[in-house]
From TrEMBL:
Protein name, entry field: Zinc knuckle (CCHC-type) family protein
Organism encoding this protein: Thalictrum thalictroides (Rue-anemone)
SUPFAM superfamilies per UniProt: Retrovirus zinc finger-like domains
Record-level Gene Ontology MF annotations: nucleic acid binding; zinc ion binding
InterPro entries registered for this protein in UniProt: At4g02000-like, Znf_CCHC_sf
Upper classification of the organism: Eukaryota, Viridiplantae, Streptophyta, Embryophyta, Tracheophyta
Length: 71
């Protein structure tokens, strides 16, 4: 079978998303398929602020803490 099939989907993610690289699908309770995922874009997210827009390393709160020196 020299056929390539794919589906492009638009998904909504929250800041807890771990971007899984595959999903396992079971058909007829016996045939199992592993469906790989590719992501066009993974938005930067910050676990500290719980928002998108920057990542943990570039978090403004991280700099604030260091500059003030009081944590
Ligand atoms: Zn942040």
């Amino acid at each position: 079978m020299a056929k390539t099939s794919y589906a492009r989907v638009c998904i909504e993610v929250d800041t807890k998303c771990t971007y899984p690289d595959h999903a396992t699908v079971v058909l007829d309770e016996k045939r199992t398929f592993k469906i790989p995922f590719e992501y066009n874009r993974k938005p930067q997210k910050c676990a500290r602020c719980d928002i998108f827009g920057h990542n943990n390393q570039n978090c403004p709160k991280l700099k604030e803490g260091k500059e003030k020196g009081r944590g």
